[in-house]
Design a protein that fits this description.
about 300 residues, alpha/beta, nine-stranded mixed beta sheet, four-stranded mixed beta sheet, 13 strands, about 40% helix, binds adenosine monophosphate
Length: about 300
């Protein structure tokens, strides 16, 4: 079983072309929906009393949501961000932690034996606490972001020591180590615990570091982008989902997982929030995978 822990959010996303308010988002939402295209996936997180039942139903249709707590007292985590015309650089307007602040995570008994655990971007302390609830996962991967690197850097480093792999974006990796070279960042990530590190570079692709080798991969060419929110999480979910499906870690499997990460990331940004992710079929993924192979083989 694959279990994903992270935020289930209401996102307000502003682009020069359109604004969506309080749409279904969050790191656990994007990554678990993406992972569910590969293996059955369960989600652990918390939402507030303002979380619409229609969103709950969407999650229920796709995932095992027995690990999702609904707080009667507090509001759902809310993230407000804007993008400029190039839709690549995000500015955070507001991070309202609400229900996340004092969340003491619990997991249903059925999740304790999960072999695969994905710690989507969340408070690193909470990530470490939730890890203690599982009996002995075979593979643990985490993500993080600037908010936690700035506010809880020590804890982020500690969390890295407890995982097998880490996925984060270029700016976050550079911020974490105050290091400008992406390859050196990858080595630093590896020397802090994880056996493999993935650094995402948006439309410039991604870099895998494993077994003392660098593997840079191009992004899937995406011509029509509506909302880049969730690209990283969808990448992470697909990466983890694919590894869980394959049940092994070697450079070939990791590279393939990167390709699936790129493909799911490319789908996520083609519509607002999770709209595209919920619509795509395994056939759509297969077609994009074939196309990726065709473009990049020479
Ligand atoms: P990304 O894949 O990086 O675009 O992640 C976007 C998601 O991250 C949004 O749906 C937000 O709800 C969520 N998010 C934003 N800030 C935080 C934070 N500090 N901790 C956890 N999740 C966050």
């Amino acid at each position: 079983m694959l279990t994903v822990f992270g935020t289930v959010a209401l996102d307000t996303t502003r682009t020069p072309f359109h604004t969506v308010e309080r749409t279904l988002g969050g790191t656990a939402t994007f990554s678990s929906i993406s992972a569910s295209k590969y293996v059955p996936t369960s989600i652990v997180g918390i939402v507030g009393h303002d979380f619409p039942t229609s969103y709950l139903q969407i999650l229920k249709n796709l995932l095992d949501i027995r690990g999702l707590t609904i707080s009667e007292k507090e509001k759902t985590f809310h993230y407000d961000s804007s993008f400029g015309y190039d839709l690549s650089k995000r500015t955070t307007n507001k991070t309202e932690l609400n229900v996340i602040s004092n969340y003491q995570s619990t997991i249903p008994d059925e999740y304790i034996d999960s072999e695969y655990v994905y710690l989507a971007n969340n408070d690193p302390m909470q990530n470490m606490n939730v890890l203690n609830l599982f009996s002995k996962p075979r593979l643990i991967i985490c993500d993080t972001m600037d908010f936690w690197i700035v506010n809880k850097r020590e804890e982020v480093i500690k969390m890295m020591n407890k995982v097998d792999g880490i996925i984060l974006n270029e700016a976050e990796a550079k911020l974490l180590f105050k290091e400008s070279n992406i390859f050196r960042c990858a080595r630093l990530l590896n020397s802090n615990g994880p056996v493999f590190a993935v650094i995402n570079k948006g439309e410039n692709g991604s870099l895998l570091f494993y077994d003392n080798e660098f593997y840079p991969l191009p992004a899937y060419p995406t011509e029509f982008i509506k909302d880049p929110t969730g690209a990283g999480d969808s990448f992470g979910g697909a990466f983890m989902g694919y590894l869980s499906q394959q049940g092994k870690i070697d450079s070939r499997t990791l590279k393939n997982a990167m390709v699936h990460g790129n493909i799911m990331g490319s789908f996520a940004i083609e519509d607002y929030g999770i709209d595209k992710l919920v619509k795509i079929s395994s056939d759509d993924i297969k077609k994009r995978h074939e196309k990726y192979k065709e473009i990049f083989s020479f």
